[in-house]
Specification:
The protein is mainly alpha-helical and about 450 residues long. About 75% of the residues lie in helices and about 0% in strands. It comes from Apilactobacillus kunkeei. Keywords: Amino-acid transport, Membrane, Transmembrane, Transmembrane helix, Transport.
């Protein structure tokens, strides 16, 4: 085992900003407008409230597991220990693929923004630059990575806080807005009724809200590299969830209160439209900069999480043991290089095989988010039962999730319902069609190749 070589430098603020780096992505800046158009403002707020309740429950389950057993393998290790090694194997590969596939699309998004200002540089040129920077931020030492993620996450949070502040001033007519259909004092929220398109779109947006909150679980990946996890992990979880829920739901309330549901800019650039309508100069350039930092931060924290998953698989002998070697600074170098290589392959597949390979990869990624949360609830349910059965008392737990066994059972049920919802949504159905067979193939592969190793360990 080489886990003792990991540097234990991460503080609570690093875990919070790393988690925010993974969560605050293009979803909140780009997709919320589309959600408001689809389900109406009240429907979207309701969907995000449901999503935030689910993420709070998942994080409570994960908090108990990661405080009791802080390790870099996080949920894949908990799945192996408390459910089945095959389920742990699926979880690790699903989670690795989620961030690696995202890396490919993030490189394209970053390049698209870059080409607006430097049109002569091709996509591959920008991708190469971003690859080198992200690799350097992750490979030199943990202090460089955690500092970069801290400042980028801070900028994203401040951008949403400033927008929220401006939104409140617009809603209460303190700042005038040049928009002919604007209804002050939250009148816009119910201008077309509570659920203008019925309840079905709201269910679809609940699924989008779940994806929007994905990344919060990254705190558990960092627990194995944190100082005093008994204190830092619960602190990080609480502060992260408070920040996310206030910013996400507040932003949706502001957007829905200012722009009419029929406004075409909702689906494209609602933030730019609002900033332009209150005469903020260079509104589109400001948003481009914030988007650039948002996407880059997501790629940076995603590479961190994915590389630790590969290290953990190697550490458990389900990848060549040599891949578990750490640098003298406690960095899993091979995991980092393989993750970035996987991201570049995802990038190439999105360009050369968008309707086959890349479609399949993104479908697995969409399925993986709900699958990983389901596994966290399942692992927590089994852990607590095994813990008590072994003669322990809950008073021995340094952090105890509330409402056991109802909490993990609800997590499992809601995640299963989400998967059923995905199956009924024609735009997302492919996630089930490809995700379920992929999970079964992973499980069979583990059973055939690694069962003997598991018995020997």
């Amino acid at each position: 085992m080489s886990s003792h070589q990991f540097s234990k430098n991460l503080k609570a603020r690093n875990l919070i900003t790393m988690s925010l780096g993974g969560v605050i992505g293009t979803g909140i800046f780009m997709s919320t407008g589309y959600s408001i158009q689809t389900a109406g403002p009240i429907g979207t707020i309701l969907a995000y409230v449901i999503g935030s309740i689910l993420v709070c429950m998942v994080m409570a389950c994960l908090g108990e597991l990661s405080v009791h057993d802080p390790n870099t393998g996080a949920f894949h290790t908990y799945a192996s220990k408390y459910i089945n090694p095959g389920v742990g194997f699926i979880t690790a590969w699903m989670y690795w693929l989620t961030w690696t596939i995202a890396l490919g699309s993030e490189f394209i998004a970053l390049s698209t923004i870059g080409q607006q200002y430097f049109p002569s540089i091709p996509v591959w040129g920008f991708s190469l630059i971003f690859t080198v920077i992200i690799l350097l931020l992750n490979i030199i030492n943990m202090n460089l990575f955690s500092s970069s993620e801290f400042w980028m996450s801070l900028i994203k949070v401040l951008a949403l806080v400033v927008f929220l502040g401006l939104g409140i001033l617009i809603i209460f007519k303190i700042i005038p807005i040049h928009h002919t259909h604007f209804k002050p004092f939250f009148g816009q929220l119910t201008a077309n009724g509570i659920f203008p398109n019925g309840l079905i779109p709201v269910i679809s947006i609940v699924l989008s809200a779940n994806f929007a909150f994905s990344g919060a679980e990254m705190i558990a990946v960092g627990a194995g590299e944190s100082q005093n996890p008994e204190k830092t992990v619960p602190q990080s979880i609480k502060h992260t969830l408070i920040i996310l829920v206030i910013l996400f739901i507040g932003t949706i309330v502001a957007l829905g209160s200012i722009l009419p549901q029929s406004d075409s800019s909702l689906a494209q650039s609602p933030f730019v439209t609002i900033l332009s309508n209150i005469n903020i100069p260079y509104a589109s350039d400001i948003m481009n900069l914030i988007l650039f930092i948002t996407i880059f931060s997501g790629a940076n924290s995603g590479v961190y999480a994915a590389s630790r998953m590969l290290w953990s698989l190697a550490d458990k002998n389900t990848l060549p043991k040599g891949l578990a070697k750490l640098s003298k600074n406690g960095i899993p170098v091979y995991g980092l290089i393989l993750t970035i290589a996987g991201g570049l392959l995802a990038l190439f597949s999105s360009i050369y095989a968008p309707n086959t390979v890349y479609l399949a990869l993104t479908a697995i990624s969409a399925f993986a988010v709900v699958f990983v949360w389901l596994v966290i609830g399942w692992a927590h349910f089994n852990f607590r039962r095994q813990f008590i059965k072994a003669g322990h008392s809950t008073s021995e737990l340094k952090y105890k999730a509330p409402l056991f066994p109802l909490l993990p059972i609800l997590v499992i049920i809601i995640c299963l319902l989400s998967l059923v919802g995905i199956a009924f949504d024609p735009n997302q159905r492919i996630a089930i069609i490809i995700g379920v067979p992929f999970a079964i193939i992973c499980y069979i592969w583990h059973a055939l190749v690694y069962r003997k190793k598991d018995h020997h360990e």
